[in-house]
Specification:
The protein is an alpha+beta fold. It contains four helices and seven strands; from the N terminus they run βαβαβαβββαβ. The strands form three sheets. Strands 1-3-7 form a three-stranded antiparallel sheet. The longest helix is centred in the middle third of the chain and has 16 residues. It is globular and about 45 Å long.
């Protein structure tokens, strides 16, 4: 029996991503994150746009030529199972979602994943 969930409250999350992951999100209809690769045991959405911008611009662009900042909403009650992790300074906040939880995490996305910023290598 499948339980139908209606999310009444959502939390905004951001995810910095490169072009390959973004293509897989687009292929999902902008509704899901792709499964993690074996060397990626954790999915890391972040809690503020500034942190996502820094990663997309400073890490994704040098690694793959482009970096994108996505924004999406997830049911707040569902997110309570993942403690907020401070990965550095005061605003370096992220969630650590185990790869095996990602399919369920995707089911709690409300609406679409949208690209809000993009960065490209200088030509």
């Amino acid at each position: 029996m499948t339980e139908h969930r209606t999310e009444t409250s959502t939390t905004t999350l951001w995810r910095p991503t490169g072009p390959e992951e973004l293509a897989l999100v687009e292929a999902s209809g902008w509704t899901a994150w792709p499964p993690r690769l074996p060397e990626q045991p954790i999915f890391y959405p972040v809690l503020n746009e500034d942190y996502a911008v820094r990663i997309a611009r400073d890490w994704n662009v040098p690694a793959s030529g482009s970096g994108y900042v996505t924004r999406f909403e997830v049911g707040t009650a569902f997110l309570a199972r993942y403690p907020v992790r401070q990965a550095g300074g005061e605003t370096i906040l992220e969630l650590w979602v185990p790869a095996e939880d990602l399919a369920e995490f995707n089911r709690h996305i409300v609406g679409r994943i949208e690209v809000v910023r993009e960065f490209h290598a200088q030509t």
